[in-house]
Sequence to fold (392 residues):
Amino acid sequence: MKITDIKPYAVWVGSRNQCLVKVETDEGLYGWGEAGVSGRELAVAGAVNHYREFLIGQDPMQRDALWQRMYRSQYFEGGRILTGAISAIDIALYDIVGKALAVPVYQLLGGKHRDYVPCFATTGGRSYEQLIENVNLLLAHDWNVIRIGAADGPIKERGTDYNDRRLYEPRESIGLTAVWLPKVREAVGPAPVLGVEYHHRLSVAEAASFCQRLPSGTLDFLEEPIRDECPEAYAALRKMTDVPFAVGEEFASKWQFLPYIEQGLTNFIRVDVCNVGGLTEAKKVAGWAEAHYVDLMPHNPLGPVCTAATVHLAAAVPNFAWMEVRISPTEAQNYPDAEVFPVQHKLEGTRFPVPDSPGLGIEVNEDYLKGQTFKFWEAPHLHRRDGSYTNW
Fold:
């Protein structure tokens, strides 16, 4: 079997752009993959087109060797754009191999450890009252692992800034969030797992101050409090708080995970199969984490292809906690358009059943994608009151 074509589709699907990739073969089998790096889909599609030039004619069964060739074929190896492209192609190759052997992808990763994949939901609120209402709604629907978005800041004190949704002052956010979270914990009791997402918007001092304001036992995890470029900064923060960290959604290789696993800088691995280098690389990260007793908590904010790949990864590793899903009573309650994804994994309550169908177990309407275009979208450029730029 040989690869005959690789087609990237960086197009608007539903409410966002997606970078979907189809790999075709001379035996009629094909596979679908998806790239991360949201907001830079055109750059990733360009990298996919580059890899296409030397992957055509190659054996799709040799996915690990092809991974090495893609990663190491340029002097400037690695980087999120390149590994985003590698991820999509790698996932599509697994889809092809699973179909060729008539087995689900998790069988290619060592077989399944579980019959279903538990998930966590995300919520938030513009006030404490709205937040606790949303949390209670999730609990009523049996969601017992809940991630809470940090508050933007004290709205009532913003005055003329009220309608400026791009204004973000970290100290105002931590002050309000540190008041809300203990109240949420008191209201829901000790059983539910509660975390908070800070989307790397804080400095070390701000993150430490936030954690130190919380009573012990309030949080089960703090996600991405600071940026990841400097592991030493996380090491400094680690010494200032005992709150477990969930880090790694933007990591683009096993090497980027290295200091965070080896030095105990994170307690949950937020690996993203569409960013890290696909299933080939994600499985290696999982084994490394297992050796250090760290569980996976995969990042999964994209589309049904990413969800399918993540379900197979989650099924095939022993060290797994919960998978992110963006379908719950407090978020989008509708699945991605069935016209675009006629076959996709369906959430049952708060979990995904592990499928038995060959490959990833998804289908994509390619004719629909051909009729779509790329729509420019940019993540919010947040600023402080003094006009300076701050992280989104």
Remarks:
- The chain has a mean pLDDT of 95.
